[in-house]
Design brief:
four-stranded antiparallel β-sheet, alpha+beta, 191 residues, three-stranded mixed β-sheet, globular
Length: 191
């Protein structure tokens, strides 16, 4: 009963990425940038990075820092990733929204954003007339449960522990399936 419910815009700054700039103009730097393809569930795919031109004043605006939450605006709408480290001299394209949390726990906010993605919440709020887009405005107005900071940390810790336990079980079951497939092959060979 003492948790708050707020739109994300009241606990974080949300920035839509830069429009693709293929041609150099004055005072521009050629820098790598992330696009929606690079944003995967819980990690970044960095094998395929493109470059574009950034104005010097845009470098800081589109900088990527540790604990930034990146959310696909297009593609697989709402797919999030939280940065584990700063990514130096790299920006992001306008197919990505960046959430930079102010005073709350970014790890907790990421869990809520991830839950919204997995439960199909973002799919339910995007316009389906053409290609779906999770606009900055729609993301800013998504409601988020905001418990006290200490409780946010506890929730994040418990969810992480459960996730690790489940991941370990999945890993063991995959090994078991592989072993059973090999065993099946050997039985067929024997017959």
């Amino acid at each position: 009963k003492y948790w708050d419910v707020k739109p994300i815009k009241y606990i974080a700054e949300i920035t839509l990425g830069k429009m693709l700039t293929p041609n150099k103009k004055e005072d521009m730097l050629y820098r790598p940038y992330l696009r929606s393809l690079n944003i995967q569930e819980n990690h970044l795919l960095l094998e395929d990075i493109n470059y574009m031109w950034f104005l010097r004043k845009e470098i800081e605006k589109f900088a990527l820092k540790k604990k930034d939450i990146l959310v696909n605006e297009g593609g697989e709408v709402g797919r999030p990733c939280i940065l584990k480290d700063d990514i130096f001299e790299t920006g992001f394209q306008n197919s990505i929204n960046r959430i930079r949390v102010h005073n709350e726990n970014p790890d907790y906010v990421y869990l809520v954003v991830y839950l919204c993605f997995k439960r199909g919440y973002y799919d339910s709020i995007v316009n389906r007339v053409s290609i779906p887009h999770l606009t900055k405005e729609k993301l800013e107005n998504c409601l988020i449960l905001v418990p006290p900071l200490q409780e946010q940390r506890r929730i994040k810790k418990e969810v992480t522990l459960k996730f690790e336990q489940i991941s370990e079980i999945i890993k063991l079951e995959r090994k078991r399936i592989l072993y059973l497939k090999e065993y099946k092959k050997s039985l067929i060979y024997e017959v």
